[in-house]
Amino acid sequence: GLVPARPGQEAPEDAATAPARGAVSERAARKESERRTYLVAALMSSLGITSMAAAAVYYRFAWQMEGGEIPVTEMLGTLALSVGAAVGMEFWARWAHRALWHASLWDMHESHHLPRDGPFELNDVFAIVNAVPAMALLAFGFFNRGLLPGLCFGAGLGITLFGMAYMFVHDGLVHRRFPVGPIENVPYFRRVAAAHQVRPSAPNRTKLYPSFGSEL
Q1: What is the domain count for the chain?
Q2: What is the pLDDT of residues 170-208, one digit of tens each?
Q3: Which family is annotated (predicted)?
């Protein structure tokens, strides 16, 4: 029969598998640390951007109300461009992914298709690239009055809203770079996450569910 191990002495099988268990535990701890780091960065950027956008919207519309005359055309233009830019960014993301990131910008985008070493990847630079025009449009629209500044403000707001949705759905829900809570159990979002795993050439994939840039 088996000889029981003496107190304080590991069984031969345990001694042989101890290094492997230690490596697995170390990798799990490192991944958890990376997720926490990215979560803190995502929360701080989200709160900061959301707060600034909300304040900008409030003060801009408050200024528009001054004098008693409501600039209906300008306000409707801002609203229309907010929705239009958010929807347009979805199609821009799909086109850029195929025509740019898997072509001339592959050296940067490749990091998204490799095992991540650390909380961030080189592909995250594209989020900053999209944020620059959004901030410029918001700033121009905020500090100026008129229909054109109102349209620019709406476009910047729409790009910002898309960026928030992208980070939540693509980075959080699909790639689990940070926890998204019970929202991941919603059937629709589960289908969005599953659609991301399907190859881009799959028929009707992008017709069924919006990718929120999830082809990225």
Answers
A1: 1
A2: 888 888 877 777 777 888 878 877 777 664 433 344 443
A3: Belongs to the sterol desaturase family.
Distance (Å) of CA 141 to CA 69, 77, 148, 156, 160: 19, 12, 8, 8, 14
Mean pLDDT of the chain: 79
* Position 50 in a domain: yes
Contact 149, 76 (CB under 8 A): no
Residue 11 lies in a domain: no
Q: Note whether 99 and 215 are within 8 A (CB).
A: no
Can you tell me the distance from the alpha carbon of 135 to that of 116, in angstroms, rounded to the nearest whole number?
29
Burial class of 112 by CB neighbour count within 10 A (0 to 12, 13 to 18, 19+) = middle
Stretch 120-141: mean pLDDT, rounded? Answer: 90
C-alpha 138: how far from its chain's center? Answer: 20
Give domain status of residue 85, yes or no. Answer: yes
For residue 155, pLDDT beyond 90: yes
On the question of pLDDT at 86 being above 90, the answer is: yes
